[in-house]
Input
Amino acid sequence: MNAQGRRNLLQAAPFIGPFLLLYVGLLIYPLLDGLTLSFHRADPFGGRAFAGLENYARLASDPVFGQALGNTFKYAVVVVPVLTAITLALALALNKPGRTASVFRGLFFSSAVLSVTIITLIWRFVLTPDAGLLAEVWEAAGREPVPFLSHPDLALLAVAVATIWWSIGLPMMLFLAGLQQIPEDIFEAAALDRANRWTTFRRITLPSLRRTAVLVVMLQTAAQLQLFGQAQLLTAGGPGGASRPVVLFIYETAFTRWELGYASALAQVLFVLILAVTLLQFRAGTSRREP
Amino acid sequence: MVTLASLELIEVRKAYGAATVLDGVSLSMQAGEFLAFLGPSGSGKSTLLRVIAGLETVDGGEVRLGGRRIDQLPPGDRGVAMVFQHYALYPHMSVRDNMAFGLRNAGVAKGEIGRRVLDAARVLEIEPELDRKPAQLSGGQRQRVAIGRAIVKQPQLFLLDEPLSNLDAALRMRTRVQLAELRNRVDAAFIMVTHDQAEAMTLADRVAVIHDRRIQQVGPPMEIYARPANVWVARFVGSPAMNVAPVELLDGESDSASVRLGDGSQVDTRVPRAGLAGAGPLQIGLRAESVRVTGAGAGTTDARVELVERLGDRTLVYARLSDGQALTGEDRGASRVQAGDIVGLRIEGAAAHLFAPDGSGRHPVESTTA
Amino acid sequence: MKGLADRHRLSPLALAGLSVAALVMVAPLLWTVALSLKSNAELMRDSGTAFFAPYTLENYRAILQGSQVFGWLLNSLIVSLGTTLGVLALCSLAGYGFARLEFPGRRALFVFVLLGLAVPEQAVILPRHQLFADFGLHNSYPGLILPGLAAPFGVFFMAQYFRGIPRELDEAALLDGASRWTLFWKVLLPLTWPAQATLGVFTFLASWNDYWWPLISATRSDRFTLTVGLASSQMNYAQTSGLGYLMAQAVFAALPILIVYALFQKQIVGAMAGAAAAR
Output
């Protein structure tokens, strides 16, 4: 490096140095250390013994992990399309000027600012059979309350419903932003071409939202594959692990059974899976061309 | 009295990677002189201005101001002030703070800052605007603030980057007058970058025509117009562009060169013959005003009219000679010529220029009788 | 042109659908508020009484009269404000550096920072937990604040904003004799105010609602943030058995952020959408 380069680096150091230090120390180092950790047997007091691929071999045949992985994907496969469809519909309905639409937009976004603990508190007392809102409504209709949170077939669904309720704000806003970017004159041109509303929607609006839709699906997939708080707080993964997602399994492995090496291996596998799935979605979403 | 050269450029070179943008530019300015850098976009004129300001480093050569070498100094220490094309006013500062910012950075005393800002504001008639933000000002007012910000620094050299390009026609005229007044009031030199030759011609003492990484010619406006250094300058300066056509040098006894156009017609110029014979192919340069439109057969040659441009006080006639050579001539305002007509063109040989094979210009000897 | 005008109005059908959806959005919230306004004793008998009067403020009184919720609120406030200020400072500096300074390796470093956007929390949280244990940072404010400062989004966001400021301003300031620092501090930084507001709101909200890191880092109840504190009451709810009290806590915890949302709706929506779209 020449003198000029050194001088420039010195000049830039006070500006980018502080962030880089924290970034490397608190993100990059833990990321690499996590990878190392996954090849070790480790306890919370810093003891580590090299274990090679033992942790990975173990997770490959761990039925609990298998169940958690299955739950996670089952859950994401339900939540992501439903959430995308609902938010797209809301955005299409609310892409209007005026006060009414604005109030609706504000309302549908509002749940997104609440923390996961508040969401789960609210939904627990909507869904529990002994004091929940739904149970009261059911009973008023003369029917037996349904134990959503403790039924093996319904627990994961309950988590999904609460999550969808919590998460509609952001994708809706992204779709609205996408709609705003479609130039008005295309619609005018389409009207002059005697396109009816359905044709306009199918041939102009939807194709224009393609990029946004890919973004929404990618973001939501990555987020939902990392499901944690809602499941931990609403169902604690139960009953019998029926609603335990991978991240909750990682949490339990690390912080209740203190098997840090194994938990790290689980985290690495999930990281790679998320990366792979979102990259696949990105390629599928951007390479396919309209005929 | 010895006049100290205010700005001196000595063999200034500048390259971005492999692309040379300034190739050995040398220039010397008088104290208090107003110089215009005139050239098309991409000619390097703005780069040259930025090199002088210190916004670009030089790769070779020297820049001196008032005898002091400044090319290694930071921009703020060079004793120059710049008025930017888009004004570059600090949007979050009041007009007062915009003007005072540079003085504060230089550690000028508070009272002195206030006095200079007020003086400049008075002169530029923006005193009532001092506490407003740039966004609250009109385009013309912003322009004046930008000038004020330069004035308060009391620089040895003002650098103006296309100062009139963002103003509408009426405001441009007024600002032109203002710049001329400013120039009379302050004891400093000015450099203005422009692509508008009318601006350059009206404001500047001398014009430096810049093209293709170097200065093509430096001189007073009329000299650039009357004695262009080469074909490029000849065609760039003046509107419509000078006619340039290949000619053949005729043998003769006279000191002045006579030439023959492609269609066979002869033009007797007042350009000295010396050094032209045997040098290679020549070109003639004719301004439209020295190609007068007459009746067919009445002029030097005949031509077919292709396009007529009526400007009111005069009429430009775009015509083609029998050999296909295009020639633009001039007629009076009330001309009746129409496209398709055959007209005569009377070429005033006394005003013709010749260009040597290397493109350099040869000009008519000044008429002693005029 | 009936079709065109129509596109600007809500059709009755759409309005009906939206109203149903809005009811689904609001009903759980209203239920929560209703539960919080009932006495615990009455709810013990039958939570269905929440549909009807009498309502009481006794649960809120109980919170005001002494509850850890205030401590948690304070912790959340300190952690969120600390994180927000830290992020704004670090990201403004780094964003300016990446946008405006020339130095060797700048592009590569920027890409290196952007790669961090793809790293999910669960991939770093275990080693980070160990790291903080080694430095004795758990159950402390720095321990709760620091991880939030290492997020690359803000750097990207601020760099983009700085790039949008015309370079002529930098040049004018250089000709005005401004130093690098003066240029940054007095000329450019004041112009980034809208970006600071957006990034600030986004960071504050993310920090305020963060759950997993404070869950494992703050294990002493006096160090809980509001999210973790509420989680703990939620899990111990069977023991305290004050359903109305619990719901009052939820409302109490939700109120500050809902008020902030009502005040800064535009910035919050813009910030979250911008952050998502940037990825």
Observations:
- The CA atoms of residues 199 and 334 of chain B lie 29 Å apart.
